């Protein structure tokens, strides 16, 4: 999904990730943020782990460690993001 996002959008998300890493709530959040950064480099960032569809930039901008789209989140009724 990285290929569908433009360079500016990725820069915004990377900046958000790095800012969040400066004051993480806990070790799990650090792990999620680090994983999100790795996914950007692996080019599967922004892809829903369940349906493989794109997670909208507007969601990733706020919650860059998000791995499940809204539709799948509702269908699975889970709090895993």
UniProtKB/TrEMBL annotation:
PROSITE patterns annotated for this entry? ZF_DKSA_2
Q: Where are the zinc fingers (dksA C4-type)?
A: 48-72
Gene3D superfamilies assigned: DksA, coiled-coil domain
- Protein's UniProt name: Similar to DnaK suppressor protein (Partial length)
- Per the UniProt entry, what species is this protein from, by scientific name? Desulfotalea psychrophila (strain LSv54 / DSM 12343)
